[in-house]
Design goal:
single chain, 240 residues
Length: 240
């Protein structure tokens, strides 16, 4: 009999003390109800709002076997948070997602089923195919997101409908190899991961998701991140 799959969720956090207890409860319920083995690695970047203290309480509540804390001394970038968390992952599949309810755990069973059915290397949640969608954004934010995907699709031609999304399921061995080639550290990290994966010949499947704007806290996307994104697209076009 083949060994049972184990899923590692890497959750980077910064000022998510109000969101974290609910997203952990939802993840625990989803994995438990579907009889899935799991662990959640919380990578907190010294949040000033006390996120780490909340995470420590959750670790006691849900068992250190399921909640693993890998804090860092400061805000060091989203990409490096995933790299840091991956070092402690023991699952053969790795899920990367946001901690602010933008990515609802209810879509995980469909993503996992898609991987099992197709035996693909990566399943990416998409807002822009099938019955996927975006809720809670104003027109400006929607235009920025659509525009970012259009620019990336035109320049890089990655073959996926939601290149800027960050709700994904990877085979751990694949993620390790792709991360080893990835140079971006910030908001272009997700885009480069997918572009590199396509270039390395890995098979990618899409799963429609509903993206909902964060419940608590403020979006960390600003003008500097948009400029970084555009620079990242150009840089990838030159390299890949």
């Amino acid at each position: 009999m083949a060994p049972k799959d184990k899923h590692t969720v890497i959750l980077p956090t910064y000022n998510e003390r109000r969101n974290l207890p609910i997203i952990i409860w939802l993840l625990n319920r989803t994995f438990t109800e579907n009889d899935l083995d799991y662990e959640i690695i919380i990578v907190d970047d010294a949040s000033p709002d006390g996120t780490l203290e909340v995470a420590q309480q959750l670790q006691k509540l849900y068992n250190p076997k399921h909640i693993i804390l890998r804090p860092r001394p400061g805000k060091l970038g989203l990409g490096t948070a995933y790299v840091h968390g991956l070092k402690s992952a023991t699952g053969n599949f790795v899920i990367i997602m946001d901690a602010d309810f933008s990515h609802h755990p209810k879509f995980l069973p469909s993503m996992i089923a898609t991987q099992k059915r197709t035996r693909c290397d990566i399943v990416t949640g998409t807002r822009y195919a099938g019955d996927g969608g975006v809720y809670g954004w104003d027109l400006k934010r929607k235009l920025v997101s659509r525009g970012a995907n259009l620019v990336a699709d035109t320049v890089l031609r990655p073959g996926v409908s939601d290149l800027t999304g960050s709700f994904r399921l990877y085979k751990k061995s694949v993620l390790e190899k792709v991360m080893g080639k990835t140079e971006s550290k910030g908001y272009t990290f997700q885009m480069e991961l997918m572009t590199r994966a396509v270039g390395m010949g890995y098979r990618i499947e899409e799963c429609p998701i509903s993206f909902v704007d964060r419940v608590y806290g403020e979006s960390k996307l600003g003008g500097e991140e948009i400029v970084e994104y555009l620079k990242g697209v150009l840089s990838l076009w030159l390299k890949v």
